[in-house]
Amino acid sequence: MAEPAVIEVENLSKHYGPVRAVDGVSFTIVRGATCALLGGNGAGKTTTIAMLLGLLLPTSGQIRILGEDVPRHRQRVLPRMNFSSPYVDLPQRLTVAENLTVYARLYGVRHVRERLTALGRDLDIDAFFKRPYGSLSAGQKTRVALAKALLNEPEILLLDEPTASLDPDTADRMRGILTDYQRRGGATLLLASHNMSEVERLCDQVIMLRAGRVVATGAPRELIHRYGRKDMEEVFLDIARGIQSGEVVA
Amino acid sequence: MNAISPRRIAALALRYLYLLRGSWIRVIELAYWPTVQMILWGFITRYLASHSDVLTQAAGLLLSGVLLWDILFRSQLGVSVVFFEELHSRNLGQLFISPLQPIELILALMTVSLARTLIGVGFAVALAIPFYDFNLFALGPPLIGFFLNLLLMGWAIGLLVSALVLRHGMGAESIAWAAIFALAPLCGIYYPVATLPGWLQPLAWALPASHVFEGMRAALLDHAFRLDLLLYALLLNAGYLGLGIGVFLATVHKARERGSLLQSGE
Question: Given B2, B19, B256, which is nearest A55 (Cβ)?
Answer without folding.
Answer: B256
